[in-house]
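Weekly sync, protein design subgroup
Attendees: M.S., D.O., the rotation student, P.L. (late)

Item 1: inverse folding check
M.S. brought a backbone from last month's batch and wanted to see whether the design step gives back something sensible before we order anything. D.O. pointed out we never logged the input encoding, so this time it goes straight into the notes. C-alpha cells as presented (141 positions):
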C-alpha cells in the first residue's frame, strides 16, 4: 500500500492522503466514525444470536453519533427499532423464526439503501444479512 501527501490540507485543515492498493482491516475509520465488524460465523445458539443483535444495536448507536443528515438518522432509528423487535422475539421461549427473518430483512434492506451515503451502513447491512440466514437455521422459518 502506498500513502502520500497531496501536499495540502483539506477544507477542515486536516492533512489529506491519497492511498492506493488493497486495504484490509478489522476496524475501518471513515471520517469521525469507527466501524467494528463482528464475526457472526461462529454463532451456534439463541444466546449468541441475541448477543450479536445487541452488538448490532450498539454499532447503530455509535454510527448515529457521527455527522448525519436527518434522513440518515430517521433510517438508522427505524433499523434500530427493527433490531430491538427481532431481539425481543428471539428472547421468547418459542421465537417465531419467520418474524425474526422478516424484521431483519427489512433492516438489512434499509442499511443497504444507506450504504451509498453512509459507508458504515454497507458492512452493518452485510452483518444483518448474515443474521437473517442464522435466524433461519436457529429458529426455522
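Designed sequence read out in the meeting:
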Amino acid at each position: 500500500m502506498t500513502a502520500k501527501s497531496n501536499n495540502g490540507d483539506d477544507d477542515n485543515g486536516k492533512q489529506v492522503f491519497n492511498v492506493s492498493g488493497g486495504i484490509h482491516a478489522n476496524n475501518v475509520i471513515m471520517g469521525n466514525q469507527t466501524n467494528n465488524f463482528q464475526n457472526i460465523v461462529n454463532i451456534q445458539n439463541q444466546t449468541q444470536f441475541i448477543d450479536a443483535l445487541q452488538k448490532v444495536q450498539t454499532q447503530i448507536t455509535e454510527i448515529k453519533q457521527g455527522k448525519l443528515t436527518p434522513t440518515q438518522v430517521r433510517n438508522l432509528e427505524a433499523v434500530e427499532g427493527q433490531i430491538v423487535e427481532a431481539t425481543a422475539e428471539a428472547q421468547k421461549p418459542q421465537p417465531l423464526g419467520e418474524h425474526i427473518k422478516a424484521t431483519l430483512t427489512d433492516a438489512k434492506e434499509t442499511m443497504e439503501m444507506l450504504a451509498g451515503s453512509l459507508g458504515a451502513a454497507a458492512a452493518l447491512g452485510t452483518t444483518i444479512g448474515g443474521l437473517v440466514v442464522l435466524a433461519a437455521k436457529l429458529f426455522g422459518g
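Discussion: The chain is about 55% helix and 15% strand. The CA atoms of residues 56 and 79 lie 10 Å apart.
Action: P.L. to compare against the previous round before Friday.
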